[in-house]
Design a protein that fits this description.
By secondary structure, the chain is of the alpha/beta class. It has nine helices and 17 strands.
């Protein structure tokens, strides 16, 4: 439309120009194409392929959608009808559309130069740290512009300048594709049971990437915001630990922790417990401030970190600290490369067994031996000597 703002601003010219504008608008076909046609095809790939055919054509449109070369959907649409597939993880979709049996479109998904939204559905610290590298890998592979939302943006915005960050729930603007990354037990959202694969692979699978372990970037220097060295006045070396987690099956024994702490203390190390919960141990200080910036500052200045299969272990790994992980309820490859303490001579690895699904509402979840003397034997069987012998001291 060729609307020109009146230069003299008189009411008469202003009204006249608007009458011309509305007349031209109303006389223009609603779905005008660059070539003579009576239909328009709209497509996007936001949580699955979406095809919308609009216009006033009397034709029939046969729509075929392929997963690579496998036909997964076909239907006949008329104008002002649409279709959408439920499968929301990345697939190299191929779309064919016939108008009155004449092929008018046949292409594969191409994200180059497109705006793509990747939304993290989990607010867990460990999940978020584990998955963030794959948003950048996706952008590199497809040469697209990735918008990402996490519940921990402040940890990544400064160190992933290649990505655009928004808050969860905020609009990403005009996007061509969207992928939700999470812990799903839904074959339309994730191609493999998430508990049977490494945690990072949940993201690579959903995003259609080849899996490889990637150490995340993370903001690890907040300018020593709490004056950690001055607050603790550390006279020498210290070790950080995290003794708590979000499920009973992840815990180690209090007696085991105390013996390891006593050993470190005898070797001249100060021990600082970074868990949010109260610290019930002797010869061990509780971190004076459990906000995440302070915790990062504390861990990064320690010699090494001892923890469980929890978010703080992932945090320490991302910071670059040597991590000793006590985890026997997961298989050795579920988390990340570190010094692991396990005992495969007892019941172990239930977390990664496809016949079991973790119940986060059951603190005592132990799918094989709950309610018996063998409950949590995977971790109860690990001795302080098992841990002490692998410490990098």
């Amino acid at each position: 439309c060729n609307y020109i703002v009146p230069t003299d601003n008189t009411l008469q010219d202003f009204a006249s120009n608007h009458v011309e504008l509305y007349t031209e608008t109303l006389s223009t076909p609603k779905f005008k194409n660059s070539s003579p046609s009576d239909f328009t095809i709209y497509r996007d790939f936001a949580l699955g392929p979406y095809i919308d055919i609009r216009g006033n054509s009397k034709s029939e449109f046969k729509v075929e959608i392929y997963d690579e070369e496998k036909l997964v959907y076909n239907s006949v649409l008329r104008v002002n009808n649409w279709c959408k597939l439920d499968k929301s993880y990345y697939v190299n979709w191929r779309t064919s559309i016939y108008k009155d049996d004449v092929l008018i479109l046949d292409d594969k998904l191409n994200l180059e130069g497109r705006r793509v939204y990747i939304a993290f559905e989990s607010s867990s610290l460990g999940d978020t740290i584990a998955w963030i590298p794959y948003a950048l890998e996706f952008q590199k592979k497809h040469n697209c512009n990735v918008v990402v939302s996490t519940f921990k943006n402040f940890l990544f915005e400064d160190v992933y300048p290649e990505l655009e960050f928004i808050k969860p729930g905020d609009s990403p603007g005009d996007i061509y594709a969207r992928y939700d990354v999470g812990w799903f037990y839904d074959s339309n959202k994730e191609p493999v049971l998430p508990n049977t694969i490494p945690l990072q692979q949940a993201a690579s699978n959903i995003l259609g990437l080849e899996y490889k372990e990637i150490v995340p970037r993370i903001k690890k220097d907040f300018g020593n915001p709490c004056g950690m060295k001055d607050s603790y006045q550390v006279p020498g070396k210290y070790v950080t630990i995290a003794t708590n987690s979000t499920a009973g099956c992840k815990f180690w024994t209090r007696e085991g922790w105390q013996e390891v702490i006593d050993f470190l203390y005898s070797q001249g190390y100060k021990v600082i417990n970074t868990s949010i919960e109260d610290n019930p141990f002797n010869n061990c200080e509780k971190i004076v401030d459990t906000n995440i910036e302070y915790t990062i500052d504390c861990i990064r200045q320690s010699e090494f970190f001892i923890g469980l299969s929890s978010g703080l272990s992932w945090l320490a790994w991302a910071i670059g600290k040597p991590v000793v992980m006590i985890s026997n309820f997961t298989e050795a490859n579920h988390e990340f490369s570190c010094i692991r303490v396990t005992n495969t001579n007892v019941c172990h690895g239930c977390w990664n067994d496809p016949q079991y699904t973790f119940d986060k509402g059951d603190w005592n979840w132990c799918p094989v031996h709950k309610g018996t003397d063998r409950q949590f034997e995977c971790h109860k069987s690990i001795t302080p000597k098992d841990v002490i012998k692998v410490l990098p001291v």
